[in-house]
Amino acid sequence: MAWDAIILGAGAAGMMAAIEAGRRGRKVLVIDHARAAGEKIRISGGGRCNFTNLGIAPERFLSQNPRFAVSALKRFTQWDFIARIDAAGIAWHEKTLGQLFCDGPATQVVAMLLRDMERAGVTLWLDCAPGAIRQDDKGFALETPRGTQRARALVVATGGKSIPKMGATGLGYQIAGQFGLPVVETRPALVPLTFAEQELAWMRPLAGVSVAARVAAGRARFDEAVLFTHRGLSGPAILQASSYWREGDPILVDLAPGQDMAGALRAAKAAQGKAALRTVLGRWLPERLARHLEEAAGISGPMAELPGATLDRIAAQVNGWRLVPVGSEGYRTAEVTLGGVDTRALDGRTMEAKGVPGLFFIGEVVDVTGWLGGYNFQWAWSSGWAAGQAL
After folding, report:
1. How many CB atoms lie within 10 A of CB 125?
2. If you placed Cys at 17, which of 114, 129, 173, 388 could pair as Cys (CB 3.0 to 4.6 Å)?
């Protein structure tokens, strides 16, 4: 059967591209090996879908060419997607740092996209694994369990390697390789970090404790929560830093950002000599963390008995805790994949491969990775929209 466009992947980017192409009168087929469309949308944001961010800006995306995303992000903005959410009657709220979530379940967003695809005349085949792809002078031929499908254009919206239990594969990178497009090395991003046994032994008693902190990896700094786990560190600040961290490099954690802990502890010693260290630390830190710092340092006496060097050592751990992760939890828990199809091989306005007319790459499969907080969904909407205008 002949189509104007075949889109591989019924995720955020693929459905968006299908809607736009269908609205332009194109005959579109979307196929996905999963049994349901938009599964990442459904589970995102704790089931509430953090569908975009008010602070979308090119510098909040990682890529070997950070300017590549500018065109798509400017042509279909967060405000454009918010307008669609509003038109669909989906209630939403701003949580923190510009992050927008549905008031109700994320399935509302999936339902909106499926409804828009249906209205645009798009055909959707689920539980349908794509097979071999060939290109000829008429376009592309794709083998499927339902027979060979032909199309003038092929859009790869297969996502990255993150969360393999939901069906994520490296198919998009394989297709890029088949057609001679370079792929920037991929790695898990927005992922918890893991540590050697020495650090883990110190952290484990704090599993479940969350603290507002500042985490630095290289030149990147993030002021958000850090969560202690049995396996290491997680929480928004750690997930953000993980995209910038590389093996062998340290991260720096400030457990009381904006507070001069050395000065505060010395002042407390003078003014509250009878107080326990944990009591003083508890002004800025969770009680369990304050108590653990005291116990781990072997301190039992009141503030008045603590030497200045001891206070400085505790302050340094609070304001400048230096750690060298040994790795991350990997694609199993990573929210996105860093790296992907090299943007130098793509047209930033259309997402079409420069050397392969009719072949498009959109969404997470491309070397564009956003911050935590709705940025990656906006890239999916924007890049999908851009491709949809060109199909």
Report:
1. 17
2. 388
